[in-house]
Amino acid sequence: MDKAQQDALKKAAGIEAAKLIENGMIAGLGTGSTVKFLVDELGRRVKEEGLQFTGVTTSRRTQAQAESYGIKIVDIDDVDHIDVTIDGADEVDKNFNGIKGGGAALLWEKIVATNSDKIVWIVDESKVVDTIGKFPLPVEVIPFGAGHVIKKFEAKGYKPVLRLDADGKEVRTDENNYVVDLHLEKIEHPFELAEDLINTVGVVEHGLFLNMVDTVIVGDPNGPRVLTNSNK
């Protein structure tokens, strides 16, 4: 699938998901290429349909985009709940376990998600897999002692790689932390891995989002498909 086709599927999923936002809602707005289409569509609805809602964003990038459309964005601590959060995902399997953090926003994404009544992911069909892990698993780590955390991951066979930008500098998250990507290929026991990672001193958060999502909207050439998690 070329990028233009993939973008068309992402856009279709984003437009479909935008229908879930109603007047007066508090909506979590995720981060990434698919969410960009969602926010464009919400901006259109604000302008053309007079839609009024309050947004909580998972990154400064999304905040800037939403505010450019006149969407009201508030701090997560200024709301007592979030009605629905719509976000992308880097991979999602048939058990509704996912990997997020390709855009280095995993910590904010998880904070927003865990404070949401409903979680919806929008993806193109390439992100739907049998077993997660082919996409490198992002782990957010504190810069102090990051080298030691990486050594621990190496010893466990997690194949860690410190994420660098195009200039060879460490990628920094919105909280100024580093991202270490684990090249695992296949994650057979995601819950055990999540437990191990979060108990590693120096790790702030990891990109495993396990059985958290309620609905996945998949951009499909035949029109958006909706997958519902019956375990929630």
TrEMBL record:
**The keyword Glycosyltransferase appears for this protein:** no
Tell me the active site: 109 (proton acceptor)
Pfam families recorded: Rib_5-P_isom_A
The record's keywords, sorted A to Z, are:
Isomerase
Task: List ligand-binding residues for substrate.
Answer: 31-34, 87-90, 100-103, 127
Q: Which GO terms describe its molecular function?
A: ribose-5-phosphate isomerase activity
Q: Does the keyword DNA-binding apply?
A: no
Q: In which pathway does it act?
A: Carbohydrate degradation; pentose phosphate pathway; D-ribose 5-phosphate from D-ribulose 5-phosphate (non-oxidative stage): step 1/1
- State the reactions this protein catalyses: aldehydo-D-ribose 5-phosphate = D-ribulose 5-phosphate
Top-rank taxon of the source lineage equals Bacteria
Q: State which Enzyme Commission number(s) the record gives.
A: 5.3.1.6
Under InterPro entries, the record lists: NagB/RpiA_transferase-like, Ribose5P_isomerase_typA_subgr, Ribose5P_isomerase_type_A
Q: Which family does it belong to?
A: Belongs to the ribose 5-phosphate isomerase family.
The protein's role, per its UniProt record: Catalyzes the reversible conversion of ribose-5-phosphate to ribulose 5-phosphate.
| PANTHER family recorded | RIBOSE-5-PHOSPHATE ISOMERASE (PTHR11934:SF0)
State whether it acts alone or in a complex, and with which partners, per the record: Homodimer.
| The name this protein goes by in its record | Ribose-5-phosphate isomerase A
